[in-house]
Amino acid sequence: MSVQLYQTIKTPISGRRFAVGDVHGCCQTLKKMVEETLQITKDDHLYLLGDYIDKGPDSAGTLDYIISLQAQNYQVYCLRGNHEENLLQAWQAYDSRTFRLFVSRINKSGNLLTDDAQIKPAYLHFFKNLPYYIVLDDYYLVHAGFDFSKDDFLVHYDAMLRLRGSRVIPPNKEAVQGKTILHGHEVFYLDEIVQRINARSQTIPLDNGCVYTKPHKRLDYTKTGHLCAFNLDTYGLTAIKNVDI
Ligand SMILES: [Mn+2]
Who is most buried in 13, 126, 143, 171, counting CB within 10 A? Predict the structure, then answer.
């Protein structure tokens, strides 16, 4: 199996560029963002930052929607998130009973599986082809972040999926060649995201915890629960409330 580790994408001549944070099974919210709010056209680029599945109500529906956009030649580029990686790893490591338990009970994503507890072929194909990061002319896109404590941060793939702490670890400016880093994975409150954008921060988080719409032990749910889209050219942020839960 050969995995495409990263993808390089040139800026489109016409069309807009948007990056959207963690969707986590909130298919209707993603659909609303794409069709009503942003009104994405086939000239636009849409970058999804990983974690399409788990937590929310419809993992399979979210994948079906993304795959159908790509099949219709919308320019939708998808990163690998830790939830997609975890699913693939569990599939390889667990017996089918444990695997079904993990996917259905723990992650509430039973609709990704066939009756005999295999990942449905279309989803397996989708997951296997997800890159760990995307290089644009002026941005790096990554699910969680890069480990800048390492000189060769571009080969530390596990950090790209799981790192937390873009608040504390500054990017190595020279190493990223002036590119801005966009990431998801770690929930940031909306005011923090706006602040990072307005400050033209070198690292911009875009996960506002779309699925956290109710009181939560660790997060202030009045400041989460939005799906965020960032316009890479205008620096505009569009945040919409979750409509799935
Ligand atoms: Mn994540």
Answer: 143
Q: What are the angstrom distances between the C-alpha of 218 and each of 33, 157, 190, 244? A: 27, 27, 16, 22
Ion ligand 1 — residues with CB < 5 Å: 51, 81-82, 185
Contact 205, 166 (CB under 8 A): yes
In this prediction the pTM is 0.96
At residue 189, the 3 state secondary structure works out as coil
Tell me the residue range of the domain where 73 lies. Answer: 15-241
Alpha carbon distance 88, 119 (integer Å): 9
Centre of ligand 1 from the C-alpha of residue 78, in Å:
13
The string over 32-68, giving b where at least 16 C-beta atoms fall within 10 Å of a residue's C-beta and e elsewhere, is bbbeebbebeeebbbbbbbbbbbbbbbbbbbbbbbbe
Q: Name the stretches of the chain with pLDDT < 70.
A: 1-3, 166-168
Q: Is the distance from CB of 114 to CB of 124 less than 8 angstroms?
A: no
Q: Which CATH number fits the domain that encloses residue 85?
A: 3.60.21.10
Both tokens of residue 204?
């911009």
Which DSSP category does 36 fall into? Answer: I
